[in-house]
Amino acid sequence: MPAYVIAHLQDAAPHPDIAEYIERISGTFEPYGGRFLVHATRHEVKEGSWPGGVVMIGFPGLAEARSWWDSPEYQEIAPLRSRHIDGDIIMIDGVPEGYDPTTTAASIRAAALAAE
């Protein structure tokens, strides 16, 4: 099942460390099957507020995403970003092939009826 690393990063002043981080990051996730899905693109807020930017990296699975995050290669460059950009970063499983959201809706409906 695919997995994703999603970062909601606040805007930051340009800094050479950030440029170096961006130059080096792709090389850290390629051995784990990772690739950018969203990076340095504009977003359109439809509800709420979402200052800053979004980065999304796809991996074959959560194990590969975790291995990338914990790898010495990524941990070496992570401070280049974290010293200059605040944000929130999550890892999340994708849905399996053939996922049907109506089964989730049925579970919610059953739980709501049981709570009545």
Structure write-up:
With 116 residues, the chain is of the alpha+beta class. The chain has one domain: 2-Layer Sandwich (Alpha-Beta Plaits), CATH 3.30.70.100. It is built from 4 helices and 4 strands. The chain has helices at 16-29, 62-70, 72-82, 101-115, and strands at 3-9, 35-38, 53-59, 87-93. Strands 2-3-1-4 form a 4-stranded antiparallel β-sheet. InterPro entries: Dimeric_a/b-barrel (IPR011008), DUF1330 (IPR010753). It holds the Pfam family DUF1330. Residues 2-95 form the DUF1330 domain.
Short recap of the structure:
The chain is α+β, with helices and mostly antiparallel strands. The protein has helices at residues 16-29, 62-70, 72-82, 101-115; strands at residues 3-9, 35-38, 53-59, 87-93. The chain has a single domain (3-115), classed as Alpha-Beta Plaits, CATH 3.30.70.100.
